[in-house]
Design brief:
Rossmann fold, Glutamyl-tRNA Synthetase, domain 2, 4 domains, three-stranded antiparallel β-sheet, binds glutamic acid
Length: 487
């Protein structure tokens, strides 16, 4: 079996992580089975179309490395892959449904439908179309058409019976036909509803499996009615569980960032996001947490998709990101860090960012950053001599009441740095420890003073390695500046 799966985004807003997780599972399933991953743009809701959304969808797929075999930009044998360019197909099958008496034209005005809904609400009945146009006499229908009234096409839902399907995640699912009204298949502007569009496209594109969010379960019986009426075999449905926030409510904007591009901008790695999303609602076993792309492709299966809602745990993502940052090859990290620093460092940092300095910084900071957006602040002192500290930060608790002691320590450090024979972190450390002894101050107190003087921050990469990287001259300059600060 080679799967043909499609990711079918509606470009009406910036895609949510849950939406991109669907794309990831589609892609994994296709790659696992040696099948095809197809992108189809479902832009039938013209009023809500947002071109930025489309760009964000493509950018999200590219960032995660989810390449598509057929779809916009790459083409394929089943195109076009944008629904607004496929209207003739929907019109053709809507007409077929009417011709075979499985559908009819409905001329009910929006006002009439609104009144009907209001009345049903008052009677505490579920909203449903009352089939007013189902038995419209032919001559009246023709007259309305001739008068220029634009009808919708409604499906003639059978009065009784059950519709069922076997969902790959949820098992056997059944609906009573009586709960389904005569739904719209084609709108009056010639655009299809999602029901007709899915069915026609999934059939014509020979889609084998439909992976989508569980909010689509209740639409599935309508689609099955269409498949049956058109004489087609439905694909296998795979309805995935919703993603919840940590408070167990459906993940939404109020849980913070919900677009993968937001996470990209915060400095999460695509490797980490891939791994993280791949384990929301799917698992290899009950303990494996870090998995490579290749392992996911090798092991992905519908059988291990979870039925229960999965929780989006940001702490876990951040932890994973740290793990990936520690594992990435130095070259890749140097490139990533350089790109990030180019963007994030303040304007006074020299551009282009010195890649060589970044390379030497990598081993010093890779264990300390969990997200790339922490990098600029942590390393600004290596790219600019304007350090953001004042006397309070410099003196800290230890020297707050002992300015003279701080000045003496900085002067002595200056002398010691100047006199050092070599310039490597081990030698610097030996000298600074000796200095603490000479001055009779605690090593920790002296090192904190030096740390702020050298890097501008109380939290920094390791002190002696940082000094080595800064170079002797810059260290001397910074010690002098620190003295001036407390004068
Ligand atoms: N366009 C739908 C969505 O964005 C896709 C539904 C489906 O995959 O069948 O949710």
């Amino acid at each position: 079996m080679t799967a043909r799966v499609r990711y079918a985004p509606s470009p009406t807003g910036i895609p949510h992580v849950g939406n991109i997780r669907t794309a990831l599972f589609d892609w994994l399933f296709a790659r696992h089975s040696g099948g095809s991953f197809i992108v189809r743009v479902e832009d039938t809701d013209q009023a809500r179309f947002d071109p930025n959304a489309l760009e964000a969808i493509y950018a999200s797929l590219r960032w995660l490395g989810l390449d598509w075999d057929e779809g916009p930009e790459v083409g394929g044998d089943y195109g076009p892959y944008v629904q607004s360019e496929r209207l003739e197909h929907y019109a053709k099958f809507a007409k077929q449904l009417i011709d075979q008496d499985d559908a009819y034209e409905c001329f009910c005005s929006t006002e009439r439908l609104a009144e009907l809904r209001a009345e049903q609400q008052k009677q505490k009945q579920p909203p449903r179309y009352d089939r007013h146009c189902r038995e419209l006499p032919d001559d009246e229908r023709a007259a309305r058409g001739a008068a220029g009234d634009k009808p919708v096409v409604r499906f003639k839902t059978p009065d009784e019976g059950t519709i069922s399907f076997d969902d790959a995640v949820r098992g056997h699912v059944e609906f009573e036909t009586a709960t389904i009204d005569d739904f719209v298949a084609l709108k009056s502007d010639g655009f299809p509803t999602a029901h007709l569009a899915h069915v026609v496209d999934d059939h014509l594109m020979e889609i084998s499996h439909v992976l989508r969010g569980e909010e689509w379960v209740s639409s599935t019986p309508r689609q099955i009615l269409l498949y049956e009426a058109l004489g087609w075999t439905p694909p296998t449905f795979v309805h995935m569980s919703v993603i919840l926030g940590p408070d167990r409510a459906k993940l939404s904007k109020r849980h913070g960032a919900v677009s993968v591009l937001d996470y990209r901008d915060q400095g999460y790695l695509p490797e980490a996001m891939f791994n993280f999303l791949g384990l929301i609602g799917w698992s290899l076993d009950d303990h494996t947490v870090l998995m490579s792309r290749e392992q996911f492709i090798e092991h992905f299966s519908l059988e291990r998709m979870g039925k229960n809602p999965a929780v989006f745990d940001l702490e876990r993502l951040t932890w994973m990101n740290g793990a990936y940052l520690r594992e990435l090859p130095e070259e890749r990290l140097t490139a990533l860090f350089t790109e990030r620093l180019e963007r994030d460092l303040p304007a006074d940092a020299e551009r282009p960012i010195d890649r060589d300095v970044v390379r030497r910084l990598v081993p010093l900071v890779r264990e300390r950053v969990k997200k790339l957006d922490e990098l600029a602040e942590m390393t600004a002192g290596f790219f600019s001599d304007e350090l953001p500290y004042g006397p309070d930060e410099l003196l800290g608790k230890k020297f707050r009441d002992d300015r003279a002691g701080a000045t003496a320590a900085l002067t002595a450090a200056h002398g010691s740095v100047e006199a050092l024979a070599g310039w490597d972190h081990a030698a610097i450390e030996v000298a600074m420890r000796a200095l603490a002894d000479d001055l009779d101050v605690k090593a920790g107190a002296l090192f904190m003073l030096l740390r702020v003087a050298m890097t501008g921050r109380a939290v920094s990469p390791p002190l002696f390695e940082s000094m080595e990287l800064l170079g002797r001259e810059r260290c001397i300059l910074r010690l002098a500046n620190a003295r001036d600060t407390i004068k």
